[in-house]
Design goal:
This protein is α+β, with helices and mostly antiparallel strands and 255 residues long. It contains six helices and nine strands; from the N terminus they run αββββααβββααββα. The N and C termini lie far apart (78 Å).
Length: 255
């Protein structure tokens, strides 16, 4: 995938599809650049990518329909997100995902044929799914009152998460901030004002990105110890040290 297209897609929140494929929920992102339509689909485990000459493909499938690029994009997007869309000829393997869509709008029938290549690199799954979720969780943990969050309704599922307007907005804000921070970090590195070092377990230094570069800037705490204040941590340390240094008393035997 082109780096510029990938960067634009990263800014877009996943939109849950209105139908299931192979009885699994999917989500999609859409982006038009240079008259080409880029669509990525995911079942939150794999990502499939289609690139097509937008107007040409739309016209070949919908001979009597046309319009501005923006209008056509909205039609295709609604086709993927509508629960009334008919799905046929599903085909999926390790390399690709393929299916046909049909939806009736007024007196017209809209059609689309999706053929997406499987993006084998797990970097796409991490950057488009895992990292945004970790970033969102970090923001919630750091800046929100968790008591105000309602318990999930029994009918909701993980696949519905990105579809919520509040989560979409949070996704966009967090993603943009993350990309800006990363851009500034890359600029500093190129100017030589900031040096990145990676130290392995053998004590050897290697130039390059640190392993922490692949995680959010403010990851959620992994234990209660991480969220304690400095004073509490000192108390906990002294308590642990005292327990270790105190002699173990032998139990008294009673007969």
């Amino acid at each position: 995938m082109d780096a510029n297209v990938n960067a634009e897609l990263l800014k877009i929140c996943w939109a849950p599809l209105g139908f299931k494929l192979a009885n699994k929920p999917y989500a999609a992102k859409f982006h038009v650049k240079a008259e080409q339509l880029h669509i990525i689909l995911t079942d939150y485990e794999c990502i499939y990518y289609e690139i097509a000459d937008f107007v040409k493909k739309f016209s070949s499938l919908n001979a009597k329909l046309g319009g501005p690029e923006k209008t056509l994009l909205e039609k295709v997007r609604n086709m993927f997100l509508s629960p009334t869309t008919k799905v046929s000829d599903e085909s999926k393997n390790d390399k690709a995902l393929e299916f046909n869509l049909e939806i009736i709008v007024g007196k017209r029938t809209l059609k689309w044929h999706f053929f997406g290549q499987h993006l084998n690199s797990m970097d796409y799954v991490f950057s488009h799914i895992t990292r945004p979720l970790l970033n969102i969780l970090s923001v919630i943990v750091d800046g929100c009152d968790l008591s105000s969050i309602n318990a999930p309704v029994s009918n909701t599922s993980f696949s519905d998460l990105f579809g919520k307007p509040s989560v979409q907005k949070l996704y966009e804000v967090v993603t943009m901030e993350s990309m800006i921070a990363e851009s500034i970090g890359n600029t500093n590195t190129e100017d030589g004002s900031e040096e990145s070092m990676n130290i392995d377990t053998g004590g050897n230094n290697h130039d390059g990105k640190s392993s922490t570069d692949f995680f959010p800037a403010t990851p959620p705490p992994t234990s209660t110890y991480e969220v304690m204040s400095d004073t509490d941590q000192d108390k906990e340390f002294r308590k642990t040290q005292t327990m270790c240094e105190s002699p173990v008393k032998k139990p008294r035997l009673r007969f």
